[in-house]
Amino acid sequence: MRSAHVMAYGAVVLAAVVPMACMASGDEEPSVPVRPDENATSVLDGEAPLPDADPGDEPDGSVEAAPCSEAGWCTTVLPDVDLVMKDIWVFPSRAVAVAESPTLGIKVLEWLDAEARWRYIDDGTQNDLGISAAEQFVGKIWMPNENEVYYGVSRARGFESIPGYIYHGTRTAQGTWSWARDLVGNGNAGNAGNPSIGVWGTSHDDVYAWFNDTIYRRTSADGAPPEWIAEYAAADPDFGTEKFFFFGAAGTSADDIWFAGARVRSGYGTCALLVRKTSNVYGRVADGSNAQLNRCTERAGAQLIGGAEGGLTDIHALGLGDLVALKGGRDVIRIKAEGEPYSTAIASVPMTVSPGALNSLAAVGGDLWLGGTGRVVRGGAVWDGGAFGLSTIWAGGTPMTQAIWQVKGTSNGNLWAIGVRNALHKTTL
Question: What does pTM read for this prediction?
């Protein structure tokens, strides 16, 4: 396997890919939230939490009588019971997902509608990096077509140098998958936390990756094998313990690409970070100063995005210069490039709909879809008199208590909600 080292950037504090908030403790040492317990449960609507599945209850591969909720979310059988489904890329008749397992490490799965089942497509080499299964972290997945996939891998926590790897898979003529990996950077994990790593692109020939504070582009010169070249780094801290993290990307073309993330200062809080690439130039659209405790204020050279305190953890492009982003696990921000400063509109998910923070955001079929702990939230026309509401994901009235990490799809009749030990498929409007 090819392993090309591109660029390293000093000691890096790893951040969770969930909204962050820090307690006041001064600037003596970095302190960002550790990775949440993905197997934790919460009580919904006064119901008692359900017992965890018995690890000995292995699925038999049967697809008969899959239970479905009133909203049309149907369970699918996973090949192992302890999979935490972290991200998914969806096509009209298939989907590819990445998962973590404390026993199996990182796994890559493909779903085919025609077969109505999940199967593993990785070659196992993503678990040969000298990282224990319990410490492996898988980032965002992206696919330019049905026969090509990218995803990021790193270590969840530790004190030594933490590498980031980008895996690239291609489907062979025989229907199997061939895999290669590249090293995209090293950082020190510090006291605890998670890395931020992932891939997104506009086409087969225009692919980007991010690892913590740096954005890379897959580049090939003079017929040489492609390399991940660092194109942009958020490297302007105002304070010694400030760190930067990119969490997602979106866009409409090679000349309209957005990268969302956060500026984090130990003990003070997290401010939204938004970078846009146009005409091959990166520009800082939004940023904030952590000079005041638990409050972001305007920073010279960029506008401040209001709403819930926290970073931008997921974004989705609605059109040219028009996108939505999840901020602070609570607010959906619509940002339009309509001059300087860019216009912003805020729609907050009510606590009555989701008392806990939300993990992900997608814009599908004219609606907004968000995932959280034990719930999927659907929003329609939220800036024009519409509202957010629950889309029931449990069958038979029994609440689901585990985290939903992503909701993605090609239409409102082809949606996936994935998370801890679950992959739910919705094929009805």
Answer: 0.85
